[in-house]
Design goal:
Distance between the termini: 80 Å
CATH superfamily of the largest domain: Bira Bifunctional Protein, Domain 2
Shape: rod-shaped
Strand content: 15-25%
Order of helices and strands: HHHHHEEHEHEEHEEEHEHH
Bound molecules: adenosine-5'-[phenylalaninyl-phosphate]
Number of domains: 2
Radius of gyration: 41 Å
Number of helices: 11
Strand order of the largest sheet: 1-4-5-9-8-7-6
Length: about 325
């Protein structure tokens, strides 16, 4: 009876070696195990043989049948795995995808926020659309005050205003918190400017305000020097010049010693050795009164940092228009 099964075994082994695809395996299955398959026919013909012969044919034939079925399954899963391997070939170069970057102003803002957080300041977010009261009146700039002309303002039809300065947030803080107040207000400001290389109609400022008992100009200078030294990662020397803002008294323009020439004088500092950086001053008693704070007991200082201009200095961007241009070639360089 071996003569019947052995040639089949050899044919099966050869066919299994040659089968490389799913289709070939299916053909092989049909050839041996199909209804009219070679092995099926042998198994069907057992009746022709004696009982002993039937036993041998049945045993060997079914063993071969299981072998073929198992090998087919094995080979099919090998082919499937190979297909997957080819699909996820980790040695192939990946598909490029567009990676976004933060806007340079966001980067500078976050850096400064970290510095102020480290100095115990809270970060406040106040309105971009303000009432006349918060943007001017409560900052000691009543209607018809000539200081309103310093800021070309976008007025809305409902009488509200796109804030011209983050100083507009000062009163919101005084209304919400009692002294000691120590906060920064970073945010977008709007002015109806003639746009040029250093003026935009939409730009960022960062307001700072500290109110407590015994706050003096010395605290203002110390805070500014500490903050700027951390920001520029070296010791920065500052000086104050008188400056006028109705909501501070006295008011100052804060300059830093020119970092390009070390104070000797160069084109950047117009040979003065100093670069104008930000306006600041002691909070005017009238502003404290508007905020319901006892100006006999408490004093404070405030400053208004031009964030957009600071980003220009930090990254050496000569034209402010680059920031709002949407020009990704420029903006994506900053990480
Ligand atoms: C103010 O806005 C005051 N609120 C600042 C202040 C706060 C003074 C607290 C005293 C106490 P000024 O108008 O100078 O001040 O603006 C402050 C900074 O904002 C400027 O130094 C400049 O860096 C930036 N800035 C003003 N206008 C523009 C503009 N059109 N485009 C870009 N940056 C501007």
């Amino acid at each position: 009876m071996e003569d019947l099964i052995n040639p089949l075994k050899e044919a099966v082994i050869r066919a299994l070696q040659e089968a490389k695809t799913m289709e070939q395996l299916e053909t092989l299955r049909v050839r041996f195990l199909g209804k009219k398959g070679e092995l099926t026919s042998v198994l069907k013909s057992v009746n022709k043989f004696s009982i002993d012969e039937r036993k041998v044919i049945g045993y060997e034939g079914n063993k071969l049948k299981s072998y073929i079925t198992e090998r087919i399954l094995e080979l099919k899963s090998k082919i499937e795995n190979n297909k997957l391997k080819n699909k996820f070939d980790i040695t192939l170069p990946g598909t490029d995808f567009e990676e976004g970057t933060y806007h340079p102003i966001t980067i500078v803002q976050r850096d400064i926020e970290e510095i102020f957080k480290g100095m115990g300041f809270m970060i406040a977010d106040t309105n971009e659309v303000e009432t006349d009261y918060y943007n001017f009146e409560a900052l000691n700039v009543p209607k018809y005050h000539p200081a309103r002309d310093m800021q070309d303002t976008y007025w809305l039809e409902n009488g509200m205003v796109l804030r011209t300065q983050t100083s507009a947030g000062q009163q919101h803080l005084m209304e919400q918190f009692s002294p000691p107040i120590k906060a920064i207000i970073p945010g977008r400001c709007f002015r109806n400017e003639d746009i040029d290389a250093s003026h935009e109609n939409t730009f960022f400022q960062l307001e700072g305000i500290v109110i407590d008992e015994g706050i003096s100009v010395a605290n203002l200078i110390y805070t500014m020097e500490t903050m700027l030294s951390k920001m520029f990662e070296k010791k920065i020397t500052v000086r104050l010049r008188p400056g006028y803002f109705p909501f501070v008294e006295p008011g100052f323009e804060l300059d830093i010693r020119c970092e390009i020439c070390g104070g000797k004088g160069c084109p950047t500092c117009k040979n003065s050795g100093w670069v104008e950086l930000l306006p600041c001053g002691m909070v005017h008693p009238n502003v404290l009164k508007y905020g319901g704070i006892n100006s006999e007991k408490y004093t404070g200082f405030a400053f208004g940092l031009g964030l957009t201009r600071l980003a220009m200095m930090k990254y050496g961007i000569p034209d402010i228009r680059a920031f709002n241009s949407g020009n990704l070639k420029i903006l994506k360089q900053f990480k």
